Amino acid sequence: MLMPAHYLRTQVQIAREALDQIEQALQAEAAGAVAPLHTARDFIRLRLKRDASFPGGMFGDPRWDLLLVLFVAYEEGREVRQIEVFKEAGVAHTTGVRALREMEEVGLVVCRASETVKRKLIVSLSPEGLERMRQALSP
Fold first, then answer.
1. Each residue of 93-111: pLDDT tens digit?
2. Which of 16, 44, 47, 71 would you label with 65, given CA atoms 20 to 30 Å apart?
3. How far apart are CA 120 and CA 107, in angstroms?
4. What is the pTM assigned to this prediction?
5. Residue 116 lies in a domain
6. Would residue 74 count as lying in a domain?
7. The domain containing residue 91 runs over which residues?
């Protein structure tokens, strides 16, 4: 079955943009200028493009996306509520709750009650989670 030309053009454009981003990252890495925050943002941008091209839920495990969102929030000095983390990571609520619980059990994230709004959870990387993300995102 042949794909419509506009679909193929869109896919080629997405692939070109992804390759351009990879090339830029490689050039920056060679120059020693890649910061973990930029790498995390690039991963998030690529996930958004990927999700626009493929059916929802096709790529399964949301933990990496949740960790990326939490890392970017930390680096930007933002405190994020649980619901915001799920939205930014493109994760369903029940799946996100389960994933955060599992990551909290192994010491990667910390969930705490909001001091200002009842029934709101604030989520952040633990010190260990932050260190692991920096290692994973560094050249």
1. 999 999 999 999 999 999 9
2. 16
3. 21
4. 0.67
5. yes
6. yes
7. 59-137
